[in-house]
Amino acid sequence: MADDKNDFVSQLQIRTKQFVLRSIKVFKALPPTEEARVIGKQFLRSASSVGANYRAVCRARSQNEFFSKISITVEEADESLFWMEIMSEAGILPSGKLSALMTEAEELIKILSKARKTVR
């Protein structure tokens, strides 16, 4: 059972890191407009925070620290999804370029939210 948990944690570390790397590619694909620059930076900050904060979750020294860090990770994933919605709805990037990453953000939010609930 411990191996299953370790595998899950490792796979989620890889997945959140891939989310960051894919987000960087989206950022690089943004048009050179002022609104894309502003929204893009907000998006990149929150998206990169997902991977960084999940690593911090894995190093939590207590249940309270775990809950706090995973809550931040959920919030950052949700904020990333928000900025992708804005990019799509504002016509900054076509929704087709964002749909797979938006789906990944939604899945990460569900997984991380469920992990947070198990701690309570």
From TrEMBL:
Superkingdom of origin organism: Bacteria
| Gene3D superfamilies tied to this protein | 23S rRNA-intervening sequence (1.20.1440.60)
Q: Which InterPro entries match?
A: 23S_rRNA-intervening_sequence (IPR012657), 23S_rRNA_IVS_sf (IPR036583)
TM annotation in the entry: none
Quote the NCBIfam families the UniProt record gives.
Answer: four helix bundle protein (TIGR02436)
PANTHER family membership: FOUR HELIX BUNDLE PROTEIN
Entry protein name: Four helix bundle protein
Q: Which organism is it from?
A: Dyadobacter fermentans (strain ATCC 700827 / DSM 18053 / CIP 107007 / KCTC 52180 / NS114)
